Amino acid sequence: MEHEGRLYLVDTGCPTSFAINGVIPWVDRTPHAVVLDMEEGRLRFAGENDEVSRCGLVLPFTKAPGTQAPILRCHPGFKMIWDTGAQVGYIDISTVPKESIIKEMGAFSDFSPTYRTIESPMTWLARFNPEPDFSRSEFVPYIHCQMADARADILADIRKEGAHGVLGNSWMGDKDSLTRMLAAARGEYGELLMDCNEGVIVAICGRKGLVRIQNLPVWIERNTSTGAPRGRPNHDPFEIVAGDNRPVTPPAQVAPNQIFTVARRVPPSLGRFTAEGLRGHIQLDNIDGLIGNDLLQDTLL
Questions:
Q1: Which residue of 11, 128, 221, 252 could cross-link 74, Cys pair, CB 3.0 to 4.6 Å?
Q2: Of 204, 295, 212, nearest to 8 (Cα)?
Q3: How distant, in Å, are the alpha carbons of 34, 126, 157 from that of 138?
Q4: Which domains are assigned to the chain?
C-alpha cells in the first residue's frame, strides 16, 4: 500500500502490524471490508453497501492459531493458508493430484524472517478449486498458484496451524502477469476464460470471517458432442450466493459513507521483524512498515 510516497507491505500471513515510526495510515472507522484491488493496484476500504462487499465468489475462512492468517478450503479436502507475504505457495507436492499440476516453473528463491532464505530447486503451476465444490457445474473457478515442495520444517509448521499448505501471492497478479502464467492452463476439453480478468479483487470481511473474490479465471467445459465451448452461465459467473451457488443480479449502487485517513498506533517492530529488515529484503528504501491481520481483519478496533 502506498500513502504519501511511503510503502507498507500487506501481509495476510503476519498477525500484527508494525511501522518504523509507530503509526500506519488507516481508516478512521471499522470498514465492512478491506479490499485488495489488483485491477486498480491499490488497497481500499468498502462499506456494507459497496458493491465489492456484496458480490463475488464467497469463501468462508478460519484463522490459523498462531498467525491469524485466513485458511481457505479447496477441493478436494485441502486447507490452505492465504499468505500475501509469500511469493510462492508451499505444500507437500506429492499430495497434489496430478491433474491439478499444470507445468513446471523452475527454481525459485524466497525469503522469510522465520526461515530466512528458502531455496526451491523446482516449482510448479498448480490449480486449486476453492470450496464449495464446483465439479458438477458448467463453470469452475480456480486459484492458480506457483507452488514449491515445502521442506520439512516449513511443512511441520503448516500442519501445526491446522493446514495442508500455503497459497502465496502469485495467484493475485494483475491481468498481464496472470495471462503469462496461465498460457499453459488452456486444455483440450475446455476453455479458460481470461477476457473478464482485469486483475483479482479480494474483499476481506474480517468480522464475518469470509472473503469475496472477483475475477478468478474460470474453466468452462466444452460440449462433448460438438467440441465447442459452452456459453457463460450468466454475464458474470463470479456473482454467486453462498450455499446454492445461484447467480444473482448486482445490488444497486449506494453512495458510500465518507471515510477519512488517520494515523493508527502500531508497534515499531515485531520482534526481530523490522521495517529496516523489510527494506533490505524488498530493496526499497521507502518501505515504512507492514499491515498485518490485526488491521486487515478489523480486530484492532
A1: 128
A2: 295
A3: 31, 21, 37
A4: 1-28+260-301 (no CATH), 29-259 (2.40.70.10)
pLDDT digits over 111-163, tens only? 887 888 899 999 999 999 887 656 556 677 889 899 999 999 999 999 999 99
Any long-range contacts for 180-183 (C-beta under 8 Å, 24+ apart)? 181/125, 181/144, 181/146, 182/144, 182/217
Give the integer Cα–Cα distance in Å for 230 and 212.
25
Q: Which of 87, 8, 85 is nearest to 42 (CA)?
A: 8
Task: Give the residue among 85, 128, 125 at the shortest CA–CA distance from 106.
Answer: 125
Of 168, 267, 211, 277, residue with least CA distance to 35: 211
DSSP labels, 185-244: G--TTEEEE-TT-SB-EEEEETTTTEEEEE---EEEEBPTTT-PBPPPSSS-TT-B-TTT
Residues 86, 202: Cα–Cα separation, whole Å: 17
> Tens digits of per-residue pLDDT, 202-239?
999 988 899 998 888 777 655 444 444 444 444 344 44
